[in-house]
Amino acid sequence: MYIDRNINQQEYPYQGTFYTKGEMVIPDNGDLFGQSTDGGEAIILETACDVIETNRSFSSGAISAGYDVYFPHPEGVVVEIERGMMFRCNALGFHISGMVISIGASKLGGVHAYVKSTEI
């Protein structure tokens, strides 16, 4: 009997989005409790990706997790992803969101981003 463990394996099985959030500003009416931004989010890149959890911790009520995100490098295109941008992905029903901590080229011909997610 032969079991093919890679039968459903895809290189980039998920769809991820890199984006920036709008800046928080004080509204003209002075309402500091109103959530006001200067224009919302701006999508920088939507791409096929693979997400792997690398670490997690729970301390003093804060939950933290780190993820490695791999995605293909479009040929001839400059990737505009920078530290501090946001990332979100729905990986088989698990919602992953966090901030880009580092980014670089992978030796497999794609791009590697490290994303940190923290919730209180």
Folded structure, characterized:
The structure is a single chain. The chain is mainly beta and about 120 residues long. The protein has one domain: Thrombin, subunit H (Beta Barrel), CATH 2.40.10. The chain has strands at about 15-20, 40-60, 60-70, 85-90, 95-105, 110-120. A six-stranded antiparallel barrel has the order 1-2-3-6-5-4. A hairpin with a 2-residue loop joins strand 2 (about 40-60) and strand 3 (about 60-70). It is globular and about 70 Å long. The model has no long low-confidence stretch (mean pLDDT about 80).
The largest sheet has its strands arranged as: 1-2-3-6-5-4
CATH topology: Thrombin, subunit H
Shape: globular
- The total beta strand count reads 6
Query: Helix content range of the residues, please?
Result: under 10%
- Alpha-carbon distance between the termini? 49 Å
How many domain modules? 1
List the uncertain runs: none
Proportion of β residues? over 45%
What is Rg? 18 Å
SS class: mainly beta
Present the secondary structure layout.
Layout: E1 14-20, E2 42-59, E3 62-72, E4 86-91, E5 94-105, E6 110-119
Give a quick set of tags describing it.
single chain; 120 residues; mainly beta; Thrombin, subunit H; 6-stranded antiparallel β-barrel; 6 strands; 0% helix; globular
Short overview:
The chain is mostly beta strands and 120 residues long.
